[in-house]
Amino acid sequence: MVASTATSAREKILSTAYALFTQRGIRDVGVDEIIARAGIAKATLYRHFPSKDDLVLAFLQQREQLWTFATVESEARRRGADPEGQLLAIFDVFDDWFGRDDFEACSFINVLVEMGRTHVTGRASIQHLNTIRSVVERMAEQASLREPAEFAKSWHILMKGSIISATEGDRQAALRAKAMARQLIAAHRS
User: Fold this and answer.
1) Which residues have CB under 8 Å from 147's CB, separation 6+?
2) CB 110 within 8 A of CB 27
3) Using one digit for the tens of pLDDT, what is the confidence trace for 10-31?
4) How many whole angstroms separate alpha carbon 139 and alpha carbon 156?
5) Is the pTM of this model over 0.90?
């Protein structure tokens, strides 16, 4: 029972932080607000997350699981009929995301810009962005595209650029990026 209670307290803290961090960023959300919204004691938070940075790192890890793997990669693979189609489907997933009322942009980009690339959470954000690029590189390899690592770097620029454009208010950004993505695929076909 103790392990279950500890797990549920940790999950409650992380769930609360996840919702707040995705919507408002890191610096705007204080530990006291997380404690109040989660309905836990300060000691409970610090037992599970010794510092706010530890909580942010856990949030980023959860974001990678929920967003990078369970949403972007999984949905793109489901929607695309073949490896090239799966790559293009990434922008279909983005188009759905950009159209949501609760569109919150990319947490990895947000944390990187907010905290800086030398901060522990900024460095972690860079690693999570590298993971996304690795997913694209694997998809490019499966599509038999030339220079999959270079392709993935260029593709990732399209992904990040479309997110920034959508954040600026361009809800058609994913469709614009998808059109450019078709050209990138054509340029990398064997």
Assistant:
1) 188
2) no
3) 999 999 999 999 999 999 999 9
4) 12
5) yes
